[in-house]
Amino acid sequence: MRHKNAGRKFDRDTSSRRAMFRNLAANLVLHERIETTDAKAKELRRVAERLITKAKRLGAVAYTPNDQLTEKQRADRLAVSRRLAAYLPRFGTRTEKGGDLKKVDLVEKVMVDLSKRFATRPGGYTRIVKFGPRRGDNAPISMIELVGERPAAKSDE
Fold first, then answer.
1. Sign of CA dihedral 127, 133, 135, 136
2. CB under 8 Å, gap of 24 or more: what pairs does 129-134 form?
3. How far apart (Å, rounded) are the C-alpha atoms in residues 64 and 80?
4. Which residues pair with 129 in a beta bridge?
5. pTM of the model
6. What are the pLDDT digits (tens) for 49-84?
7. Which secondary structure element, helix H or strand E, spans residue 106, and what is its range?
8. Model confidence over 111-128: pLDDT tens digits?
């Protein structure tokens, strides 16, 4: 029996599972929408919402410029950014239109952009849309995306 054992194992050991979710969470933060299997999307939702909530709990300190903060606020912000950086890779690379590569600081994106976007939202930062079975192996496929307005990301599609 699996009493009090939350989460799916995905037939992976702990380090492989953690690496998979780190990469999925980084891609979700970078692109704000990704396609994956239903089960991975449901587990990724738990991970992504916890990361955004960590940054959101700082309030306006998360997206206020550093020179306008007190020493305690700087320390709080640094602690949260280190917690996020312990899980997320620091940088991600996105291909812009025209084939240009853009390097994005993922921790700062969560701290500044996403915490500001979801400041008034009490949770539920992601949406899962089911697509149907994948052609090759019939695995159920879903799209997981961050809800709300996507600034300038509409040009990606």
1. positive
2. 130/38, 131/35, 134/37
3. 14
4. 143
5. 0.88
6. 999 999 999 988 888 888 898 999 999 999 999 999
7. helix 106-108
8. 999 999 999 999 999 999
Q: Which residue has the tokens 């410029």?
A: 65
pLDDT of residue 115: 92
Q: Which residue has the tokens 């620091």?
A: 90
Which uninterrupted H or E stretch holds 81?
helix 71-87
Give the pLDDT of residue 6. 87
In this predicted structure, the answer to whether residue 154 has a pLDDT above a threshold of 50 is: no
What does pLDDT average to over the chain?
A: 91
How many angstroms separate the CA atoms of 8 and 110, rounded?
25
Q: What residues contact residue 96 under an 8 Å CB cut-off, 6+ apart?
A: 102
Contacts of 118 (CB under 8 A, 6+ apart): 52, 56, 125, 148
Task: Please report the domains of the chain, with CATH numbers, ordered by start residue.
Answer: 14-156 (3.90.1030.10)
